[in-house]
Amino acid sequence: MSAEEARLCLLLHSAPGIDDNLLARMLLSCGSPRELAAAGTSRWRELGLPPGTAQELAQTLRGDRRSFDIDGQLAMLTRVGAQVVPITDSRYPPLLQAIHDPPPLLYVRGDIAALSQPQLAVVGSRKASPAGLRAAGELAAQAVRAGLHITSGLALGIDGAAHRGALAAGGRSIAVVATGIEQAYPRRHRGLAAELEGAGCLVSEFPPGIPPRQYNFPRRNRIISGLALGVLVVEAALPSGSLITARTAVEQGREVCALPWSIYHGGGAGCLYLIRDGAKMVQTIGDVLEELGPMFALQRELLPARDVPQPEVAGLSGSQQRMLGLVGYESVTVDELVRSSAAPAAQVMADLAFLEIRGVVARTNGGFIRT
To answer: Which domains are present in the chain?
Structure first.
């Protein structure tokens, strides 16, 4: 898209009195941003614009009315190498176009073609447990090996682990951001955003210059689910933004999967809620692919079998190996380990300290967990 066309898109997006749903309908009716701009006030009124709003649109396109710094926005797009993809563009992802409220314009950094490839959305808590982070990374990597791209929201916690798992497996990942495309939020994920731009893309429905605003994050979740064949909720509390993504996925006719967690793990209560209400309970990526459909059936051989025992860790004594076997992916207290191992408390603490140094267990609030 030329700078002139990008400028036209920014002008249309800045026009007062035209919300995104109406702009999308107008673009689809006219066929392109250029044809919409050339249609004139009579045609715009036929498409649903009140007379006053039609006149304001004409003034905006002539440059007589400026509610945004269009030159500044265009400079931001140029600086980061972002492109504008209107809903009428052949590169606009078909699955997203099919939802009931698709964005009229997408702002994209990276490979636009990645948006139209089969995707699995992986979402969850920003304050995830070590087990949740590990599950997100491993499941994302396995999904990549099964032929899926990974879509998430670039947030801390599960989102970041899913993106990194996809990249570590040599796959592609899409980050849907809730700010202008020239930004990377949170700032701690600027490096990750740069990696995703090179191995996938970043996408936003918001024009350049839009800062992080709390109410924009739930809104962008419909894009995360709308791009994907299904949504995997790895770990989510109640309430949770991930449940918003799951709800929009159901409304869009997408599959929803969730990991089962102990009833004593509050961070997983949202997943249990989803499973109770009909989400697919999954333990391996094979369960996810089964829910997504037969298109992935031939790739099941890439997946690990269920109930594979944990390999022994070299260099552990007998008591340390037994202690490691008693620490699972749910937090367990020292008292519980003393009871289950029938070992003296001092021995249990010594074994746990050694295992923590080796990096195979980690402390959590009130206990220990396998890493």
So the answer is: 3-68 (1.10.150), 112-302 (3.40.50.450), 318-370 (1.10.10.10)
Q: Evaluate if pTM is beyond 0.85.
A: no
Residues in the chain, how many? Answer: 371
Kindly give, in sequence order, each residue whose CB lies less than 8 Å from that of residue 239, ignoring residues fewer than 6 positions away: 270
CB 330 within 8 A of CB 369: yes
Contact 212, 187 (CB under 8 A): no
CA distance 137 to 218: 23
C-alpha–C-alpha distance, residues 241 and 227, integer Å: 17
302 within 8 A of 159, measured Cβ to Cβ: no
Cα→Cα distances 119→58, 195, 202, 278, Å: 39, 18, 14, 21
Question: Exposed/middle/buried for 268, CB within 10 Å: 0-12, 13-18, 19+?
Answer: buried
Three-state secondary-structure class, residue 84? strand
Tokens representing 55 are: 């006149």
**Is-contact 271 261, C-beta < 8 A?**
yes
pLDDT tens, position by position, 329-350: 667 889 889 888 888 888 999 9
Q: 252 near 222, Cβ under 8 Å?
A: yes
Distance linking the first and last C-alpha atoms of the chain: 47
Q: Please write the tens of the pLDDT for every residue from 184-212.
A: 999 999 999 999 999 999 999 999 999 99
Token look-up 């080796």 returns 358
What pLDDT score does 67 carry? 64
Tell whether the model's pLDDT for residue 307 goes beyond 50.
no
Region for 110 from its dihedrals, namely left if φ exceeds 0, alpha if ψ lies in -120 to 50, beta otherwise: left
What's the distance, CA 324 to chain centroid? 33
